[in-house]
Amino acid sequence: MRIATRVDEMKSIAEEYRKNGKRISFVPTMGYLHEGHLSLVDIARKDGDICVVSIFVNPIQFGPGEDYERYPRDVERDERLLEQRGCDVLFYPSASEMYPEDFLTRVRVEKLSSILCGKSRPGHFEGVTTVVLKLFNIVKPHVAVFGEKDYQQLVIIKRMVRDLNLDVEIVAGEIIREKDGLAMSSRNVYLDPVERKQATCLFRSMLLAQDMVKAGIRDTKTIVEAVGGFIKKFDRARIDYVKIVHPDTLEELEEIHDRARILLAVYFGKARLIDNMEIDVP
């Protein structure tokens, strides 16, 4: 596995592969990898000739008081996992390499960036789209793989690619869950044993929503209230939002007719966990 830490080094590697007719697939991550990330690597390896993974804890997508400094990091472990999974190139730049002192530019997808997690974390998605566009320009991928666990991020990246006519295909990877249903996340390490046990209520609450739709309930207010009521039974849980939206536009739905997705964000102690699920409509 080749490792690049400088922008010019990564660009040179990407240009070399492109000149040789290789299809580059790319998985951007913030590291502290788990099976969810590695499943994206598997997809990338199948979709391209060369698999590139980046590890970069992006400072500009963290707000004041958020967990940038304590975000879990273990690059040596990540390197071993990526090598075992067949990653060809690891791009591991520093913050100063990505953002020189005179850096001034930001990229923002209007409307989609100010709702849901964007409402709770102002500026977050502006930081995400800025770094992803930079990474696309550096890695020069033909295809990039993003997980559905960060569903709003996935929708925003797809819109940025469409609106800016970027020549990269966006592929979505399914959510990978623990055996008890909790979506895998690097931030799960923040949970104490009680919070970890209670956090399974997120998956179960979405199954409740699915069951209500199967039973013929279509009013989203009724479903959201039931989901919120279920989560509130767990004393460590503090709800940020529960929404049912159109999967393409993220617009809130009043009634479910065909396609819909439930998205939620809930705090358990220091951890803010997000999850989502497609709602099957009979």
TrEMBL record:
Which GO BP terms sit in this record? pantothenate biosynthetic process
Instruction: Provide the alphabetized UniProt keywords.
Output: ATP-binding, Cytoplasm, Ligase, Nucleotide-binding, Pantothenate biosynthesis
Q: Which reaction does it catalyse?
A: (R)-pantoate + beta-alanine + ATP = (R)-pantothenate + AMP + diphosphate + H(+)
GO annotations of cellular component type: cytosol
Q: Which GO terms describe its molecular function?
A: ATP binding; pantoate-beta-alanine ligase activity
The record's InterPro entries line, in alphabetical order, gives:
Pantoate_ligase, Pantoate_ligase_C, Rossmann-like_a/b/a_fold
Comment field (misc): The reaction proceeds by a bi uni uni bi ping pong mechanism.
Full protein name = Pantothenate synthetase
According to its UniProt entry, this protein's organism is candidate division WOR-3 bacterium
Q: Which gene encodes it?
A: panC
